């Protein structure tokens, strides 16, 4: 597919045939759709005069200002025109920023914001979702804009492959669960099955805090207590080898970390942004560094897999033979330092 930043429209389409408007105007379109082309609403009905004005802007590369009250369908009209012409269209909403300025105490937020990267990310997200519940009841257009923005963000996050990684799926699930609880609405149907397992494991952990963010959404300070609990729980759920190794830096004379794995490191989103061996090399580097430091012994237990490329001391198991005494003897030998490969 052509780079959308450098693509040019190619076919000229008849306005009469495409929009059912009595006009001889032809408008440029793109042959291919990309992720930024809005979805077509087949039930949408076009206002002829406004549509012709928008199409004139598309045709002559001119600015067009569409004016009207909240909720009258200005943005949707442009999106539906773009959808039928395969024009990429990016909706920019300032509603969320305005609500943040009106309903969030920046100094209080900075004081409470945690230092851990994952905790901070979740806490920032939850505060934004909180203020977006403060939309006045007489502004349905703003409600629709914010709803559309969250839906678009959800779809782009999912379709880009970011949920293929453990952390990405965890963060996405937390965002969906918290938005659903705050808005008292169901999660995005398109990804409901994807997050079902993660959601089931999180609800028991986050239950009280989820009730708290709904109850105290109009009180930033009280809301923050529950938002911080969700942020901490999310970070703990997303624990990784470097963080776990740091937590194991305890005063005991011997500290052992056994990593049980049934496959090589896999994260589609990370691999898209780096070379194919990025995660493998990162794991090797972390294990080697922790081994050199000597604070934690890192052992690998492969389930039907040879982990020797990653761990100096490891054991490959064959669970098809069952959990017998011989297997436990091998694991004991691994821990005792008598088994290296």
* Oligomer kind: single chain
What percent of the residues sit in helical stretches (DSSP H or I)? 40-55%
Instruction: Please tally the helical runs, counting DSSP H or I stretches of 4 or more residues.
Output: 14
By secondary-structure content and strand pairing, the structural class works out as mainly alpha
**The biggest beta sheet, please?**
3 strands, parallel
Widest sheet: strand ordering: 3-4-5
Q: How many β-strand stretches? A: 5
* Helix and strand run: EHEHHHHHHHHHHEHHEEH
Shape: elongated
Radius of gyration: 27 Å
Q: If you average the pLDDT, what whole number results?
A: 85
Distance between the termini: 47 Å
Question: What's the gist of this structure?
Answer:
The chain has 341 residues and is mainly alpha-helical. It has helices spanning 15-19, 48-60, 74-85, 95-103, 106-112, 117-131, 140-159, 166-183, 192-215, 220-237, 241-247, 268-273, 278-293, 325-335; strands spanning 12-14, 26-28, 256-261, 297-303, 314-317.
């Amino acid at each position: 597919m052509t780079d959308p930043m450098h693509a040019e429209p190619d076919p000229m389409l008849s306005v009469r045939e495409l929009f059912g408007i009595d006009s001889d105007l032809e408008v440029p379109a793109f042959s291919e759709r990309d992720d930024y082309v809005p979805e077509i609403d087949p039930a949408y009905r076009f206002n002829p005069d406004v549509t012709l004005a928008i199409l004139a802007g598309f045709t002559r590369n001119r600015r067009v200002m569409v004016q009207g009250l909240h909720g009258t369908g200005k943005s949707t009209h442009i999106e539906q025109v773009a959808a039928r012409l395969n024009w990429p269209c990016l909706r920019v909403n300032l509603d969320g920023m305005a609500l943040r300025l009106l309903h969030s105490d920046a100094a209080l937020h900075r004081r409470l914001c945690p230092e851990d990267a994952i905790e901070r990310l979740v806490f920032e997200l939850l505060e934004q979702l909180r203020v977006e519940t403060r939309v006045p009841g007489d502004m349905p257009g703003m409600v629709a804009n914010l709803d559309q923005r969250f839906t678009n963000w959800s779809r782009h996050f999912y379709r880009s492959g970011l949920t293929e990684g453990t952390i990405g799926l965890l963060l996405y699930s937390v965002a969906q669960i918290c938005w659903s609880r705050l808005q008292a609405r169901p999660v995005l149907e398109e990804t409901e099955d994807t997050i079902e397992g993660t959601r089931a494991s999180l609800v028991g952990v986050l239950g009280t805090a989820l009730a708290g963010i709904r109850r105290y959404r109009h009180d930033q300070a009280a809301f923050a207590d529950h938002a911080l609990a969700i942020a901490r729980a999310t970070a703990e759920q997303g624990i990784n080898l470097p963080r776990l190794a740091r937590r194991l830096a305890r005063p005991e004379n011997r500290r052992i970390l056994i990593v049980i794995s049934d496959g090589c490191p896999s994260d589609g989103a990370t691999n898209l942004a780096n070379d194919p061996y990025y995660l493998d090399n990162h794991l090797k580097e972390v294990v080697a560094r922790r081994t050199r430091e000597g604070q934690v012994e890192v052992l690998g237990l492969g389930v039907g897999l040879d982990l020797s490329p990653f761990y100096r001391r490891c054991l490959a198991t064959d669970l098809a033979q069952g959990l017998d005494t011989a297997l436990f003897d091998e694991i004991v030998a691994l821990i005792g330092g008598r088994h290296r490969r």
